[in-house]
Amino acid sequence: MKKLVLAASIALLTACSAPQQPQLNFMPQPVLSRSDIVKNSTFTLVSKDVRSAQYVALVDSGRNNIEPVHAKQNVRIALENALSEQFASQGFQLTVNSENTVTLEVQEALVNVTHSIFENQMDAKVTLELTAETPQGKLVKSYNGTAKRTAALSASDEDIENVLNDVVNLVLKEISNDKELQTYMKDRFRG
């Protein structure tokens, strides 16, 4: 019995000490409105992630080794939550069965990192597509954010995280400030 407990303990300790894949904190920040655009306009929010791969960064250290890095959070759900807060702050009410829908499609969310011991270069790109739809028609818009950053030394996980979150937050700000989208939803989304 003692040997079995000892073997199980060693297996557990070995599993705990195995190197873990690095993961990034994906923390989109909603842009909250100070005043309502509408009152009692309801909509249903649907989201889908159509990216070809689920990682959010590709790190090339120059030794024929490109390493994918994933987000700790689910990218689709984090963006859906940020957008629902953003729309709620504008006065829109989220329901499960409205005839008005907003569909979020995550098309791209990636930071390409090339680094050596002397410098790093990060190229980030985020593409989200929103479709606001009513029985009378729909509006489809794409929102893109990009960033290029070069710095000394190699990029840390925190550096990559910051670039990704900065670009996502710029895209959320663009959505929040989109007068065409606001007008479409305001004029067509009814309770």
From TrEMBL:
Residues 1-20 form the signal peptide. It holds the Pfam family Lipoprotein_16. It comes from the Bacteria. Keywords: Signal. This is Lipoprotein. It comes from Vibrio ostreae. InterPro entries: Uncharacterised_YajG.
